[in-house]
Structure formats: structure tokens, C-alpha cells
Amino acid sequence: MKIGFLGGSFDPVHFGHLIAAQDVLEQFHLDRLFLVPAAQAPLKPNDVQSTIEDRLTMLQAATEWDRRLEISDYELRKGGISYTVDSVRHFKAQYPQDELFWIIGGDQLPLLHRWKDISELVQLVEFIFLERPKHPVKPHVEIDGLRLHRCDGHLIEISSSQLRERVKNGLSLHYFCPQKVIAYIESRKLYR
After folding, report:
1. pTM above 0.90, yes or no
2. Shortest CA distance to 156 belongs to which of 10, 19, 28?
3. Residue limits of the Cytidyltransferase-like domain (predicted)?
4. What are the chain's domains?
5. Number of other residues whose CB lies within 10 A of the CB of residue 36
């Protein structure tokens, strides 16, 4: 079985995340794809503003109808800084016979050599990076054992931090997020 994992803060989840997940599912014929919300991303210490419960609820609201996407709350339950290698060790123990793929944006390639325990990580998982069609691969440090696959996707220029700023400025989130996520943000008065 081929299993993909897409990590992120998802604060809030938006169509950029969901389209990326669909692109990878379709192009790599994955059997399962997990969205993995981080408790605390190591390279973005101030990126999360809403609670674990709020982020998980928004993610569930955005994907509850889509049986192709699953949510793993492993990193949220574990707490602390969410290093990918820790999560991959956990998933590898759960799925020892399966092919595991960690999905990243092409912008992470130049930083990949700095990830915690990268030498072990590349032995446990293959990486799929998302890039716009016909755009060159970003330069990156060679890592022994790295198995890297390109996914030409429909990358949309949306970021969660931009969306939080839009809410703060009283601007609409329509066409950026699923309607249920927008309704949840409004009901909980998040990001104000």
C-alpha cells in the first residue's frame, strides 16, 4: 500500500492544502493520504494562533465528506515541537510493510538538509515535493539516500498567515477556504 502524509499547521486549512493533497493522490495513485496537523512546527514557532481543538475541528469540517483524505492527530496528541522524523518513526511502526511518502512544498527543498535526523528520515520515507508545472526544481543540498519525486500541481498562492490577516482586517475568506471552515472561524471569532 502507498500512503502519503501532508503535514502543516492548518491554521486555518485552505484550498491550497486540499488541492495539493488531491494532486498528490491522483498523480502518485496513493491508497491513503493523511493530513497531519503539527502541534508546533519547528521552523515556524509563532505560526499557530488557534487551539489544537479549533484546528482539528476545521480540518474535520473541511474534509468530512471526502473519503480519500484522513486526519492523523498524532502530532497534536504528542504535543511539543513536531519533528517529521518522530512522526515518520511512529507511522513506520504502524505501517511497516507499506511505502510511505512525506509531502512537502518545493520551497522546503533548500532547507531539507537541516531537518532533524535527516539521514535517518530519508531511509524511512520517500519525499514528494509540489511544484508548479515547468518550474525548475529549487536548488538543494544532496542527501545520501534521498528518494525525491516531483508532483506538478495546481499550487495556489494562499497561506494561512494571509488568511488570518484577512480576518483581522475584516476581509472575506470566501473562495479561499471551504464554507464550513469559514462558518467555524466566524462562530468562534478566530483570528480577530
Report:
1. yes
2. 19
3. 6-166
4. 2-157 (3.40.50.620)
5. 24
